[in-house]
């Protein structure tokens, strides 16, 4: 008992938490920052290319966000790491990587066939859909590399290694950041590719990052053969995370579809502010990743009380950090929108939803921290049900009412606010119940 208490106390130290959270913050914040940079580069082409990037980028994000490859792998690997079975934890990464490659190739094939009808449904047809299709046909080729990177982040986080993923991701995004303005605007003698240049830059950077993760797992020295039994177990845990992800996708795809009915300025403004929301969410998720890794390891060594203390401590940290972020965005009300576009109609639409965005950031501090705790515990079934319920009760009715009653993009963000508040209530109640804190290295019984 003394050993477990000492271990839990060490895990809960600020130095340990920050040692995991800060590199994870770099990984999570790097891509949204790049997406904002990408939007700023494309935005100089005008509102129509920016709207095409917004719609195409939203679809790419939805089809490539298979969170079970990262969060599910982290939960399984962390419990094995806590039980002293590191080779088995790396083996989880091998099988997650095989799954990532297979699923990525399937997605590429399906989306090349279906991208036009999907983009037409979201973008409303016409010029926005044409621009989005041009971008997505190229950008979709990066999906296998994106999924491999998700799997790589998952098993490394489970082993409490967040430094290497940061280096790998920064290498890929750094290349994309260099290539994007060069290819989009034809700098340094390179042909002017316009919107397609953004997609090419994305794919090349994703390939570099994914390649680093593949090399890392080859060098780990564990068997590389596919194991259906392990992949099946990952998919069983993943089924609830996939359904949860689909609930998010239904919400944000519906929001984009509604925004597109209000015109190019509304859809562009919605997507740029949504990028900032994703930046906030993923930044806060750096503490949630520390929670996943540390809580999973604590439960793997049968320390439920230590896992609970870690969860509440990280929630306090996350909430304080979220309040600071909200203050930063509030101060930038007059400056930040103009960084991404010179189109006054887009700026005006962004201003109409700005204070709603600022108000829900502190609430998100609680939501994402406790999401991390419950994901680390493998409590995917509850998160699935809670997310579906909040989406059906809160978000989806509000955004479709915004269309029916012509509330504009502001109605969409009111719906997002209701969604976030409901999610906060559900995860706090679950955390207080203690029913999530099942101990042991075998996460499969938690998933089932």
Automatic annotation (TrEMBL):
It comes from the Bacteria. It is found in: Membrane. It is a multi-pass membrane protein. The chain crosses the membrane at residues 53-75, 96-122, 134-156, 168-188, 200-220, 241-264, 276-299, 311-333, 353-374, 386-405, 411-429. Keywords: Membrane, Transmembrane, Transmembrane helix. Its main location: membrane. PANTHER family: PROTEIN DETOXIFICATION 44, CHLOROPLASTIC (PTHR42893:SF46), PROTEIN DETOXIFICATION 44, CHLOROPLASTIC-RELATED (PTHR42893). Belongs to the multi antimicrobial extrusion (MATE) (TC 2.A.66.1) family. This is MATE family efflux transporter. It comes from Rhodococcus sovatensis.
């Amino acid at each position: 008992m003394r050993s477990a208490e000492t271990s839990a106390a060490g895990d809960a130290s600020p130095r340990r938490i920050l040692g995991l959270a800060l590199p994870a913050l770099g990984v999570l914040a790097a891509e949204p920052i790049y997406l904002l940079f990408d939007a700023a580069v494309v935005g100089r082409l005008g509102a129509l290319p920016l709207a095409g990037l917004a719609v195409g980028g939203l679809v790419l994000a939805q089809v490539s966000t298979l969170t079970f490859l990262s969060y599910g792998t982290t939960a399984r690997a962390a419990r094995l790491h806590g039980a002293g079975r590191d080779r088995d934890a790396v083996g989880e990464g091998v099988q997650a990587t095989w799954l990532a490659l297979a699923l990525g190739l399937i997605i590429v094939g399906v989306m090349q066939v279906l991208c036009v009808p999907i983009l037409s449904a979201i973008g409303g047809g016409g010029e926005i859909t044409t621009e989005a299709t041009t971008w997505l046909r190229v950008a979709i080729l990066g999906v296998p590399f994106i999924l491999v990177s998700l799997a790589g982040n998952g098993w490394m986080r489970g082993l409490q290694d967040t430094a290497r993923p940061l280096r790998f991701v920064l290498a890929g995004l750094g290349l994309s950041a260099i290539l994007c303005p060069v290819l989009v605007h034809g700098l340094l003698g390179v042909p002017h590719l316009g919107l397609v240049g953004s997609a090419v830059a994305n794919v090349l950077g994703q390939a570099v990052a994914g390649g680093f993760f593949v090399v890392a797992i080859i060098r780990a020295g564990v068997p590389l053969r596919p194991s259906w039994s392990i992949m099946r177990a990952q998919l069983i845990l993943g089924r609830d995370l996939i359904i949860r992800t689909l609930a998010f996708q239904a919400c944000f795809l519906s929001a984009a579809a509604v925004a597109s009915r209000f015109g190019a300025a509304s859809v562009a403004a919605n997507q740029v502010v949504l990028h900032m929301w994703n930046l906030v969410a993923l930044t806060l998720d750096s503490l949630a990743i520390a929670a996943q890794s540390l809580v999973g390891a604590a439960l793997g060594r049968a320390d439920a009380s230590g896992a609970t203390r870690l969860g509440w401590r990280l929630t306090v940290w996350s909430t304080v950090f979220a309040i600071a972020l909200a203050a930063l965005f509030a101060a930038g009300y007059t400056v930040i929108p103009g960084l991404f576009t010179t189109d006054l109609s887009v700026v005006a639409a962004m201003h109409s939803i700005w204070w709603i965005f600022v108000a829900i950031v502190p609430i998100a501090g609680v939501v994402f921290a406790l999401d991390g705790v419950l994901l680390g515990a493998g409590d995917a079934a509850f998160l699935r049900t809670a997310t579906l319920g909040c989406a059906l009760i809160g978000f989806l009715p509000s955004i479709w009412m915004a269309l029916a009653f012509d509330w504009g993009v502001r109605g969409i963000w009111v719906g997002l606010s209701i969604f976030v508040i409901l999610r906060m209530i559900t995860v706090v109640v679950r955390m207080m119940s203690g029913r999530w804190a099942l101990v042991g290295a075998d996460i499969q019984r938690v998933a089932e």
